[in-house]
User: What shape does this take?
Amino acid sequence: MSDGIGRILLAEDNLNDVELTREALAGSNLANEMDVARDGQEALDYLYKAGAYSGRKSADPIVILLDLKMPLVDGLEVLRRVKGDPALSHIPVVMLTSSSEERDLVESYRLGVNAYVVKPVDFKQFVEAVRKTGIFWAVLNNVPRGVPPPGA
Assistant: This one.
C-alpha cells in the first residue's frame, strides 16, 4: 500500500447510516480514513478513478462496505463489476445492508462477496455491528502487501 494506512470505501446512500458508520468506526479508534460514495455509480467512479475521481491518487481501498439498495447502480452490480475485474477483485467487499432476504444473500455470495452483514435497526446494535466489521477488515484481516493485484 502506497499511502500508509489503508482507506475504507463506504458506498451508502442513506446519510444517517453514513454518519452512524463514521461514528462507529471513529469510536473503535481506527486510524483508517473513510471515503463515501453516495450511490453505486459514484463507487464505480471512485474505484476506476473516473469522473470526479479521475485525479484520485490514493491506493485502492482495503475494504469496500457496500449497501445493496442504492440509486443509479445497485450494490449487486457494483459487486459484480468489482469481483469480475482482475484489477479490483482482490479488494474485500462487505455487503452492509438492511436486506435480510435470502435471494440477496445468495446472489451476493454467488458474486463473490466476502461478508454479508445485515444492518440492525437498533442504534446500539448498528454501531456495534459496524465497529466489529471495521475492526476485522481494517485491523485483524491480513492481506499481502506490495503484491500487485492480478492484471496490474
